[in-house]
Amino acid sequence: MKVLVDTSVWSLALRRQSQDLAAEEQKIVAELKDIISENRTVLIGPIRQEILSGIAQKSQFRLLKEKLINFKDWISTTEDYELAAELFNDCRHHGITGSHTDFLICAIAKNNSLAIFSTDQDFPRLQEVIDFELI
After folding, report:
1. Less crowded by CB within 10 Å, the N or C end of the chain?
2. Which domains does the chain have, with CATH numbers?
3. Which residues contact 98 (CB under 8 A, 6 or more apart)?
4. What count of other Cβ atoms lies within 10 Å of the Cβ of residue 58?
5. With 0-12 CB in 10 A as exposed, 13-18 as middle and 19+ as buried, what is 26?
6. Would you give per-residue pLDDT tens digits along the chain (135 residues)?
């Protein structure tokens, strides 16, 4: 199964040195490496933007951009955006909120039978209303 990797996981792997990671974080990075080596990684434009945002040094930005260049963006469709809005509305009706990017991630995952790999604690809350696989 292909896996849509969220910003939280990419940030652990790309922005921090492995020796600075806690044991649980090292397991997450190892899982990402496995997903990449098995060619199951999915990256979407909004996640690419989040990963590259907030980097003060241009040289660091270029280095990170180069690391991501091999991951082509999954193309989102009108149906993905419509489902994202529907999921947002459903969750809001149940008192659950999240970012628009989180709902787009869920929609793309649902529409394409993808798992989501994230450490963001919003996703378990979203699972209370939305059915998707979370790694």
Report:
1. N
2. 3-126 (3.40.50.1010)
3. 88, 91, 122, 125, 126
4. 8
5. middle
6. 999 999 999 999 987 777 778 999 999 999 999 999 999 999 999 999 999 999 999 999 999 999 999 999 999 999 999 999 999 999 999 999 999 999 999 999 999 999 999 999 999 999 999 999 999
